[in-house]
Amino acid sequence: MKKIIIGNWKMNLGLKASLKLAMEYKKNLKGTNSVVVAGPSEFALADVVNILKGSGVLLAAQNVFWQNEGAYTGEVSVKTLEEIGCRYVLIGHSERRQYLGESCRIVNQKIKAVLILTQKISPVLCVGESLSTKQAGKSKIFVSGQLQRALVNVKSFEAARLVIAYEPIWAIGTGKTATEKDVLEMHGHIRVWLSKRFGVVAGKIPILYGGSVKATVAIELLATPDVDGLLVGGASLLASEMKKIANIK
Ligand code: PGA
């Protein structure tokens, strides 16, 4: 299976800079060894997808609402993301949990909405513990709890479209990548959890790692068992860095 490399541009770029980066992705990321995905902010999605046409680079949104349509000021629907051509949507990123109060219940509603309202978009469920939870030795139990609550009422056949991203909060934007041992243990733990919950379908669910990923650390990460791809923040703002990561065999 090809590795999935998602660039999470967050709110780092304005419209012009987003379009410029999309052009660099188009130039540099055609025909790599991986499935490459660009995640611009919402206002740039439609223009970025036009630029990326023919490059093979796919599109991810950073957010979605759980209702199909209606009076929900400032939100974006599954239908709109589908019309734009998004193939992935990040759900439950720790920054949204922290700054926007996105609870596990909200995360669950969003996951369910994407799985039910469209066949074309994969929800990327982000989970991961804080530094204090890690120091207390409770990382695995914490992540199991997040998975449990985010995936309430998700059926096995629906789960086949899921992607999980393990993003320890202490590694995001800090320059401190999780060690190979941390990643190996947590990804193995997540796979076992998914197998108990969804049976054989668990083998089809890609588990990505995220948190201070750069090309230099990506080789080791991608060689770790149960690491099916990477969610890249800061380093995804450089197409050259994404190219190096996406070409790792
Ligand atoms: P980072 O962000 O690579 O800048 O640590 C990763 C993420 O939050 O998705």
UniProtKB/TrEMBL annotation:
InterPro entries (alphabetical): Aldolase_TIM, TIM_sf, TrioseP_Isoase_bac/euk, Triosephosphate_isomerase, Triosephosphate_isomerase_AS
Binding positions (substrate): 8-10, 173, 212, 233-234
Organism: Candidatus Falkowbacteria bacterium CG10_big_fil_rev_8_21_14_0_10_37_14
Biological process, per Gene Ontology: gluconeogenesis; glyceraldehyde-3-phosphate biosynthetic process; glycerol catabolic process; glycolytic process
Protein name: Triosephosphate isomerase
Subunit structure: Homodimer.
EC number of this enzyme: 5.3.1.1
Biological role stated in the UniProt entry: Involved in the gluconeogenesis. Catalyzes stereospecifically the conversion of dihydroxyacetone phosphate (DHAP) to D-glyceraldehyde-3-phosphate (G3P).
Catalysed reactions, as listed in the record: D-glyceraldehyde 3-phosphate = dihydroxyacetone phosphate
Pathway where it operates: Carbohydrate biosynthesis; gluconeogenesis; Carbohydrate degradation; glycolysis; D-glyceraldehyde 3-phosphate from glycerone phosphate: step 1/1
Keyword Nucleotide-binding attributed: no
One Gene Ontology term, aspect cellular component: cytosol
Keywords noted in UniProt: Cytoplasm, Gluconeogenesis, Glycolysis, Isomerase
Entry superkingdom: Bacteria
